[in-house]
């Protein structure tokens, strides 16, 4: 068959027709703004002229689709121009300066915030992802439009991934579910989030998605009559109550059904809340009137009512949620909200631009979002991957609402503890919290907060964070602040330890540190690439540099030749902090003969002289060990383990505990083990003593108890 003759006028290509539709959607902007956008399109089209997408389409179709999505949110000309130009810095020879001159500083900043860090080298994909995400959030903290354009970009990429390799599709889909979908939800963009979730679900599990789609379609047909009856019933009840309301059904998204089936180990037929209903009214008082009317129509399910109107979610979402028992015992989920709340629920932070009637709530959401983004930036440390981990923690679990002593409501993630609350109030309160009062009762800092708790934090100037807090804090902010404090403290303590170790090494070589000229120290610091002598001390204290090597490099000059070496011992008092650690295996206490080893990244680790754990290491690598001695200090207590064998009689544990208390010692831990014949019991205590003589006094006191058969200090091999 002959082909059709060519038409006299060539049809528009897909990108040309898309461009015409895009221009038509800009009717809310003025002519000057439209001209700027047309110029941005022309620049992007030229920059991407010779590029193709993997699917074979001209590359310009992608930025055009992203800009069209941004225009649907009715955003300003700068945002739409940035959407058109968002890949020119990354994929073409254009520079930020050029964009700034042509389209203004604001557009250039937006595009820069959207560009990947392709010129930087990263150790692996995860580190690159963390760095990119960090840059995007920093740009977003300055301007919310960055993340909205980024989300539109991600959505179009997901829609057009059919030509991509399966492994790359899966990786991008997982990344979207892990990071971008929670961000969309956190910004209140539920409509966009649902599309991202369903698209990723289809990419990751195509067969499951197909099966669920068919099941959903069948259920829709089977339940049509029941749903129509419920819908008519709700509408009729609203009319009878004299309430003006729009009532419509909503269907649970494919991904939500899949998650519920997976999390609760349910079959599709057991998921009864596939369909729900929304009631949209004019104002807040009518929300509660509508709730009363619905509870009169169908009986509510106890414990299934949530008031997000009085207590909005962190992303400003507001609605009344209730579950009713409908016809034939069918559970019916209903959401009641105002029109303004509905706009914010659907479009979130974009409602600020999209709906003029919701400008006030949109501005409020923008303010909250900026505050949240700023809190993310407060978490920043030097490690991008750690920052990424903290942000993922905050994106964003279910919330509990707690009260400060002044009655202010604070939203915390489910599982948050009193420490999380302290850091949410202020960093200084978190760094110095020592205890908490929850509902006026004293509670430990690891206590998990529950809805409605009244929380008061007790602080002390002496209290500081410790590493165990990291095991139970929930929020990224608290985790980041604790790590920052510990890192800073460890560096300061390590610097002090490093200085002492280098001083000891120099004295052992017969050189007094004060006699070394300043220029020798300066040359040493410069040759090692450090900014200051404190940095060098820190690396010595952390075990990254050997003090013997540094000392010999420092004394390499002829006029600083070492004299006769001497025997020097490092003095410690055991309360230096993280830079000096007492080994857990042998638990040295003042009075014990001790030795130390510099362990890379941990500082000086102190063992007893006869600790069996280090016997082999000391024989093989004697140069790594240094002599250490105790320096007296009042008031410091040390943990030590003891093992007591007692006759298996009633009340013996109380007698032993009383003897320990009489000797002025605290019991930190106790465990027991009865022998097979039930004649003797092995009691294992961890007690606190000031020194070796104090321990001897405690043990003497226990030996006077007739039921005590044997007592000994427990060593690492036995423990």
Instruction: Give the overall shape, derived from the CA principal axes.
Output: globular
Radius of gyration using CA atoms only: 34 Å
Oligomer: single chain
Q: Could you give the count of β-strands?
A: 20
- pLDDT < 50 runs, ≥5 residues: 1-12, 117-123, 557-561, 563-567
Helix fraction bin: 40-55%
Computed structural class: alpha+beta
> Percent of residues in beta strands?
15-25%
End-to-end Cα distance, whole Å, is 91 Å
Average of pLDDT: 78
Largest sheet: 6 strands, mixed
| Number of discrete helical segments | 28
Describe it.
The chain is α+β, with helices and mostly antiparallel strands. The strands form five sheets. Strands 1, 2, 3, 4, 5 and 6 form a six-stranded mixed β-sheet that branches. A five-stranded mixed β-sheet has the order 12-16-14-15-13, covered by helices on one side. Helix 8 (125-142) packs across helix 18 (359-378) and helix 11 (190-204) packs across helix 12. The longest helix is centred in the C-terminal third of the chain and has 33 residues, at 476-508.
Write the layout of secondary structure elements.
Layout: H1 14-24, H2 31-47, H3 61-72, H4 77-85, H5 88-91, H6 96-103, H7 105-114, H8 125-142, H9 145-159, H10 166-186, H11 190-204, H12 206-222, H13 224-240, E1 246-251, H14 254-263, E2 275-281, H15 284-297, E3 299-300, E4 306-307, E5 320-325, E6 331-338, H16 339-347, H17 351-354, H18 359-378, H19 384-393, E7 399-403, E8 409-413, H20 418-425, H21 427-431, E9 433-438, E10 441-443, E11 455-459, H22 476-508, H23 518-527, H24 533-541, H25 547-554, E12 570-572, E13 580-582, E14 594-599, E15 603-608, H26 615-620, E16 625-630, E17 638-647, H27 652-662, E18 666-674, E19 680-689, H28 692-703, E20 708-713
Parallel strand pairs: 2-6, 12-16, 13-15
Antiparallel strand pairs: 1-2, 3-5, 4-5, 5-6, 7-8, 9-10, 9-11, 14-15, 14-16, 17-19, 17-20, 18-19
Helix pairs in contact: 1-3, 2-4, 3-4, 3-9, 4-7, 4-9, 6-7, 7-8, 7-9, 8-18, 8-19, 9-10, 9-11, 10-11, 11-12, 13-15, 19-22, 20-22, 22-24, 22-25, 27-28
């Amino acid at each position: 068959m002959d082909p059709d003759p060519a038409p006299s006028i060539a049809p528009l290509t897909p990108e040309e027709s898309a461009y015409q539709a895009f221009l038509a959607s800009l009717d809310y902007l003025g002519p000057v703004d439209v001209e700027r956008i047309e110029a941005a399109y022309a620049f992007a089209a030229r920059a991407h002229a010779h590029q193709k997408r993997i699917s074979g389409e001209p590359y310009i179709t992608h930025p055009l689709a992203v800009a069209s999505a941004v225009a649907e949110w009715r955003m300003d000309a700068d945002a739409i121009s940035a959407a058109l130009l968002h890949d020119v810095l990354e994929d073409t020879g254009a520079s930020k300066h050029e964009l700034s001159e042509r389209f203004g500083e604001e557009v250039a900043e937006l595009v820069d915030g959207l560009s990947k860090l392709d010129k930087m080298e990263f150790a692996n994909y995860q580190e690159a992802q963390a760095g990119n995400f960090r840059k995007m959030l920093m740009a977003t903290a300055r301007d919310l439009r960055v993340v909205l354009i980024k989300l539109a970009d991600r959505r179009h990429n997901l829609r057009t991934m059919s030509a991509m390799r399966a492994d790359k599709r899966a990786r991008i889909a997982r990344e979207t579910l892990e990071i971008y979908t929670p961000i969309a939800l956190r910004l209140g963009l539920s409509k966009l989030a649902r599309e991202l979730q369903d698209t990723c679900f289809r990419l990751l599990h195509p067969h499951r998605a197909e099966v669920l789609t068919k099941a959903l379609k069948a259920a829709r047909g089977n339940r049509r009559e029941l749903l129509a009856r419920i819908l008519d019933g709700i509408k009729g009840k609203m009319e009878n109550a004299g309430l003006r309301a729009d009532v419509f059904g909503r269907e649970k998204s494919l991904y939500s059904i899949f998650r519920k089936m997976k999390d609760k180990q349910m079959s599709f037929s057991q998921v009864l809340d596939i369909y729900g209903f929304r009631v949209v009214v004019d104002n807040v008082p009518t929300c509660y009137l509508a709730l009363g009317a619905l509870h009169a129509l169908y009986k509510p399910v106890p414990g299934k009512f949530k008031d997000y109107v009085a207590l909005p979610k962190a992303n400003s979402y507001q609605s009344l949620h209730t579950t009713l028992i409908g016809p034939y015992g069918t559970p019916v989920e209903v959401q009641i909200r105002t029109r303004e709340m509905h706009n914010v629920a659907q479009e979130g932070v974009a409602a600020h631009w999209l709906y003029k009637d919701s400008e006030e709530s949109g501005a409020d959401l923008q303010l909250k979002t900026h505050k949240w983004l700023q809190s993310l930036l407060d978490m920043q440390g030097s490690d991008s991957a750690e920052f990424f981990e903290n942000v993922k923690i905050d994106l964003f679990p279910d919330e509990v609402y707690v009260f400060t002593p002044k009655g202010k409501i604070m939203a915390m993630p489910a599982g948050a503890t009193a420490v999380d609350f302290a850091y949410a109030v202020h960093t200084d309160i978190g760094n110095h919290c020592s205890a908490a009062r929850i509902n006026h009762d004293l509670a430990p800092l690891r206590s998990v907060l529950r809805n409605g708790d009244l929380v008061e934090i007790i602080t002390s100037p002496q209290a500081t964070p410790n590493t165990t807090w990291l095991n139970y804090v929930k929020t990224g902010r608290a985790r980041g602040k604790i790590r920052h404090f510990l890192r800073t403290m460890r560096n300061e303590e390590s610097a002090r330890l490093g200085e002492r170790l280098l001083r000891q090494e120099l004295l052992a070589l017969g050189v007094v540190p004060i006699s070394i000229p300043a220029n020798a120290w300066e040359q040493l610091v410069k040759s090692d690439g450090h900014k200051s002598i404190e940095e060098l001390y820190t690396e010595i204290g952390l075990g990254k540099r050997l003090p013997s090597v540094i000392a010999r490099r420092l004394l390499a000059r002829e006029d600083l030749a070492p004299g006769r070496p001497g025997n020097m011992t490092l003095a410690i008092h055991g309360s230096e902090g993280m830079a000096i650690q007492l080994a857990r295996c042998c638990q040295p206490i003042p009075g014990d003969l001790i030795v130390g080893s510099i362990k890379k990244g941990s500082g000086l680790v102190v063992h007893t002289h006869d600790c069996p754990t280090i016997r082999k290491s000391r024989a093989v690598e004697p140069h790594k060990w240094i002599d250490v001695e105790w320096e007296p200090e009042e008031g410091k207590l040390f943990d030590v383990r003891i093992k007591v064998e007692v006759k298996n009689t009633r009340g013996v544990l109380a007698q032993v505990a009383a003897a320990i208390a009489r000797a002025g010692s605290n019991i930190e831990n106790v465990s027991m083990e009865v022998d097979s014949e039930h004649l003797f019991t092995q009691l294992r205590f961890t007690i606190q003593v000031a020194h070796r003589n104090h321990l001897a006094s405690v043990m003497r006191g226990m030996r006077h108890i007739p039921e005590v058969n044997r007592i000994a200090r427990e060593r690492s091999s036995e423990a």
